[in-house]
Write a structure and sequence with these properties.
It contains twelve helices and eight strands. It is α+β, with helices and mostly antiparallel strands and 316 residues long. The chain folds into three domains: 40 residues; 67 residues, Translation Initiation Factor IF3, CATH 3.30.110; 186 residues, Methane Monooxygenase Hydroxylase, Chain G, domain 1 (Up-down Bundle), CATH 1.20.58. The two termini are 23 Å apart. The strands form three sheets. The chain has a four-stranded mixed beta sheet with strand order 5-6-8-7, with helices on one face. A two-stranded antiparallel sheet has the order 1-2. It has a two-stranded antiparallel sheet with strand order 3-4.
Length: 316
């Protein structure tokens, strides 16, 4: 870290010199304007207004010789890094167009604008300056709560398709949240001015997003197991007792997150070991059934991911 001495300049101003490498890198000269944003415990300097503006940023992805999985990773990476224009090129575009379109449709505000046999152009129309991570987390939470609630209905009616589609909604919001956090880290002054979020706040939202997405996956997989298994009435009742306890832990943990109540988070943490023990006892009674091991492992995963949300309350 470099440092500079504060120099008095007249009766009401002070001056700090700028590092020459930074001035040279940004092609600045005498008389150019420097913009700054005040953030907690500091100032963010930039050589242009609207720091790190990426409104015209573009990226090109060559799809030739790549699997759909790799193409998906590259598109999502470009989306999270806030590229406003994504162009996919190559002779194989025509053969992979349907899958590429599906990937793009699963990203909020990214739309296909042009398409030929060798090229697909997608553009982003989201105003990141107005995107509130707190609101997005609440939306994810509402969907995850509904998924957990519907898991308890699986013994009476098959609602797996509904749970599966809502998991896709959770994934879409998670990518948008990762993008919002990335934008906030690159534009800390703007995000603090608009929402009063610090870097620690953004880190906390990143962590809870990661765990909410994982909890959505757990709920989807648990529902899939229930659909495939044939549990008797006694086992169904025991499962519902364990699952309802995990649901309560989730609701309490999210309440602790919104209130930043570390005591409530610790209370939920104290219940994790008992939940895991109940899962193991349940497995000992159904281990002769196909999918029983996977079901119990997902229940434990759910307990762990709920537990992990607490770190965003008392560590950040």
């Amino acid at each position: 870290m470099e440092y500079r001495k504060l120099i008095s300049f007249g009766k009401s101003s002070f001056v700090v010199s700028l590092p020459k490498p930074w001035v040279t890198k940004n092609k600045l000269s005498k008389g150019d304007l420097i913009y700054f944003d005040e953030v907690p415990n500091g100032l963010v300097l930039n050589h242009r207004e609207g720091s790190n503006n990426q409104e015209e940023s573009e990226i090109t992805i060559d799809v030739n010789g790549k699997s759909i999985r790799q193409i998906q990773r590259e598109i999502i990476s470009a989306y999270i890094r806030n590229f406003k224009s994504v162009t996919l090129t190559g002779e194989e575009v025509k053969d992979k167009a349907r899958e590429i379109q599906n990937i793009i449709q699963n990203l909020v505000a990214l739309e296909v604008m042009e398409q030929t046999s060798k090229r697909i152009l997608a553009k982003d129309f989201l105003n990141m300056k107005e995107t509130d991570p707190q609101l997005l987390v609440r939306k994810m939470d509402i969907i995850v709560r509904a998924m957990i609630e519907d898991c308890k209905l699986m013994f009476k009616e098959d609602v797996y398709d509904s749970i599966y589609h809502r998991d896709n909604d959770v994934n879409k919001l998670s990518f948008l949240l990762y993008r919002t956090v990335r934008y906030g880290m690159d534009n800390s002054g703007a995000i603090f001015k608009k929402f009063k979020f610090t870097s620690n706040d953004l880190l906390r939202y990143w962590w809870v997003t990661y765990n909410l997405e994982s909890i959505g996956d757990d709920a989807k997989r648990i529902a899939r197991c229930i659909k495939k298994m044939e549990l008797n009435k006694e086992s169904q009742a025991e499962f519902l007792e364990i699952f309802s306890a995990l649901e309560k832990n989730y609701l309490d943990m999210m309440r602790g997150f919104y209130k930043q109540d570390s005591e409530l988070a610790h209370d939920v943490h104290e219940k994790k070991r008992m939940c895991v023990q109940d899962c193991e006892a349940f497995y000992s009674k159904i281990n002769d059934l196909t999918w029983s091991g996977y079901l119990v492992s997902q229940l434990k995963s759910l307990a762990t991911n709920i537990h992990s949300i607490g770190r965003s309350i008392y560590q950040y």
